[in-house]
Structures are given as C-alpha cells and as structure tokens.
C-alpha cells in the first residue's frame, strides 16, 4: 500500500452486532512506518 499524503486515503466500515456502523482509517505511523487501523466517528 502506498499513500502519498499524511491524510488517510483508505478505510473500512462495517455494521457491528448492535447495528452500529463503525469506521476505521488505514494509516501509516509517522514514528516508525507501521500500519495502523484507527477508529473514527463520522
């Protein structure tokens, strides 16, 4: 995966067992370059 900015450019969402849509951004850490999956509210 390659992302050319500091803004997340990929993400996923799903509906949990309570019917709530949850959103996650796929990001690259600025500390060590590891891949992060960060939840956010829409």
Molecular structure report:
The protein has one domain (10-40). Helices cover 0% and strands 48% of the residues. The protein has strands at residues 10-15, 21-28, 35-40. It has a 3-stranded antiparallel β-sheet with strand order 1-2-3, with no helix packed on it. The chain is elongated, with a radius of gyration of 12 Å. The two termini are 24 Å apart. 0% of the residues are buried. The model has no long low-confidence stretch (mean pLDDT 83).
Set down the secondary structure blueprint.
Blueprint: E1 10-15, E2 21-28, E3 35-40
Antiparallel strand pairs: 1-2, 2-3
Largest sheet: 3 strands, antiparallel
* Chain-averaged pLDDT: 83
The end-to-end span amounts to 24 Å
Total of helices: 0
* SSE class: mainly beta
Quote the beta fraction.
over 45%
* Topology, number of strands: 3
- Enumerate the spans where pLDDT stays under 50 for 5 or more consecutive residues: none
- The radius of gyration over CA amounts to 12 Å
> In one word, what is the shape?
elongated
Could you state the order of secondary-structure elements as H and E? EEE
Query: Largest sheet, order of strands side by side?
Result: 1-2-3
Helicity level, as a percent range?
Answer: under 10%
Tally of discrete structural domains: 1
